[in-house]
Amino acid sequence: MDKAKSPRWGMVINTKRCLDCKACMVACKVENSLPCGKWRNWVRNDASGFGRRRQYQPGQCMQCDQPSCVAACPVGATWQRADGVVVIDPAKCIGCGNCVTACPYGARYRDAMTRVADKCDFCSHRLQEGRPPACVETCPTQARVFGDLNDPESAAARLLKSQKVVTVTAPQFDTKPQVFYLAGTDILDWAIAPTLPGGAHMPPSFWRSS
Question: What is the pTM of this model?
Fold first, then answer.
């Protein structure tokens, strides 16, 4: 499929609408049958600053346009589809953990039982049925807005066109995340410096110049 003509799924998040109800987390866990103690998404909060409004910031895999996890996988188990969604082939995954530590957002984990890597895939099985991700459908305040970024009529594309947005940028990698936050969001400090085990090689294009 021609990537330019296929959907390009993405998300715009309005943190001012998030109530920290964590319905998105529960919906994701149930929908994807995640193991105990593991999550594909989260809601972080910032209570710093006397008199400031507490901010809740939903997050998940950023479905990066230049995913460092794909570059770090030595066997091609992690790959990017034509619609931009980064997915994992469990049959190919060898459990090395390179993709987990290559992710600058802490969005991946390994299943303790299967040793296979896992992460958000925008509920790909639901996309095939024409339904949005479970977290989006469940959010009572529509804090998460999902859609085809290549379709100017989609809710997400309209927000990107009409509103200023920001992204969570990693300290070392420019992965071009496709999850956006409306401008005014105080990006909480959760992008991390990736550390790669096993001598995994990252292409020079991923590293920021010092």
Answer: 0.86
Three-state secondary structure readout of the chain: CCCCCCCCEEEEECHHHCCCCCHHHHHHHHHCCCCCCCCCEEEEEECCCCCCCCEEEEEECCCCCCCHHHHHCCCCCEEECCCCCEEECCCCCCCCCHHHHHCCCCCCEECCCCCCEECCCCCHHHHHCCCCCHHHHHCCCCCEEEEECCCCCCHHHHHHHHCCEECCCCCCECCCCCEEEECCCCCCCCCCCCCCCCCCCCCHHHECCC
Domains (range + CATH), the chain: 9-140+175-195 (3.30.70.20)
Average pLDDT rounded to a whole number, residues 62-72: 93
Give 131-171 pLDDT, tens digit per residue: 999 999 999 999 999 999 999 999 999 999 999 998 888 77
